[in-house]
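>> received
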Amino acid sequence: MKTRLLAATALTFAAIMGAGSALAQAPGYTTPKTAWGAPDLQGFWNNTSITSLQRSPDAKSLVVDQKEADRLVNRNILVVLTKDDEAQAGLDPNNTKILEDKNNDRGYNAFWIDPGTKLATVKGELRTSWIVEPANGRIPYKPGASRGGGYAITNFDGPETRPMAERCVLSFSGSYGPVMQNSMYNNTFQFVQTPSAVMINVEMNHDVRNIPIVASKAQAKHSPVPKWGGDSVGWYEGGTLVVQTTNVHPNQRAMITSTGKLTERFTRWDDHQMLYEFEVDDPELYSQVWRGEMALNASQPMYEYACHEGNHAMPGILGGARQLESEGKVPGMGPGIAAGLVLPRDEAGGEGFN
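>> returned
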């Protein structure tokens, strides 16, 4: 009898551990409630991490050990950029060498970025991507599918043709969604709840998601008017806030088209972490439904984000384009903040990946 009991206990434990990917809360954790009985998600949360939406070709699996995590972090392009800048500290006080390669973007040095120094820990595991399905951690785009709306980034005809971030409409990071993502800085979110709504204030560009709360999925009705970030409606399922988003503005470079659907689930994993799960369903863009899991960690209050491009820099942006055109040149974007940097070599001698 004792042997059977031990065997049964072992099988039960193994089943629980094997189902770890299905857990939405740390075992034994009880979600705090608001005064009106909803799961309390309020406060400041942050997703700063070297982990990104898609898995790097250099990462062979979703979950890695600490040694592999350290290797991937040290090969991350933003970490390399930071180390490169720190190595020059005090040697070039006027920042003249940083522009020797004629890359204007390199003026955007490491002082201004905060990409993190670790892979994310999601449900107790070191993760190499937010995407968990497909198993390769990559977005399953259909061949030839248009990857979002918006204007061509090389079009300098006027302010209306510049990208949304440059016009201070939405940030470039994708943190507003759909899907909520992380970037090289300003990765904090503020959650505020009332009985009838949830507000998510996104630090990057001070974009705000206002989500009406209904009794259940059956009561969810969406506005027919396209919106930046899409039209979101939420409801509670036990200890989880479920949000359904559709009808995204066709000019936004989002992860869904105007006919796609995003389902998000927000659940307190423990007192210090919230689990953000998302499912993207858009046959127009993707060959299959794809899913992800992200850690939102308890954080300090956010900074006020000041978007200068659209507010102050647009005359310079367009004026510079007119000057280049007068010289017979075609205006375009720079090669990127990390252009010219050499990543560390791996054990086999190959170059590193982002």
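>> The radius of gyration is 23 Å.
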